[in-house]
Target: NAD(P)H-dependent oxidoreductase
Amino acid sequence: MQLLKNLEWRYATKKFDSEKKISESDLEKIKKAISLSASSYGLQAYKVLIIEDLEIRKRLQPKSWGQSQIVDASQLIVFCNYTKVDEHVIDDYLKLKAGIQELNFDDLKGYGDFMKSKVTTLSDETTKAWTAKQTYIGLGNLLAACAELQIDACPMEGFEPEGYDEILGLSEKGLSAAVIATIGYRSEEDATQHNKKVRKPFSKLFETI
Model:
C-alpha cells in the first residue's frame, strides 16, 4: 500500500521552511480531500479556515503557545466546529442533497424529521462535543493527503480556542476553533524529521474479540 509508505514518511513537523509555499493546485487537492471526509449524517457541521495572512498569524501565535509553525508554515488550517445545529442546518443540507442527487425535497422530509429528532434535542454542550469530533475526521484526511503530496503537516491541539475565537471573530458566526494544523515544507534544521517513529506494537494496540 502506497498509503502506508506515505504515513511512514510523514511526521509532526516542528520547524517549517518559511520560504517554501504550497502551490495552488496542491492546495486544491488538500481541500478536496477534506471535503470528501465522512461526517455524521453528511452534515459537515464545521468550517475550515485557511489562514495565509501573516499579520493574523502573528496575532494567533501567542495563543498557540508561541509555536513557530504558526507563522513559518505555508498555511495555517483552523477547523471550526458549529456550536449549534438547528433545523436550518439540516434543511440546508437536504436542499443540497436534493439538488445534487436530483431528488424531490419533500421526499426527504422523513429523513429530515429523523435527523431533527436526534440532533436538535441535544444539549449545547453535547452538540459542541459532537461537532468538534467531526473536525478530526477532516484533519485525518488532510494529513493523509499531505503525505501523498509530500507536503509536511503538523496537527496541533496546543492552542487556546477562546483566543482563536476572539481574534478570528468565530463566536458571532456560531463557530469555535476545534483543532488546527500547519502545512508546508520542513526545514532542513528540523531535527525531529530524523527521529524513528514510536508506536505501540500491534499486540498492545489491537485486540480481537
About this structure: The chain has two domains: 2-85+124-205, 86-121.
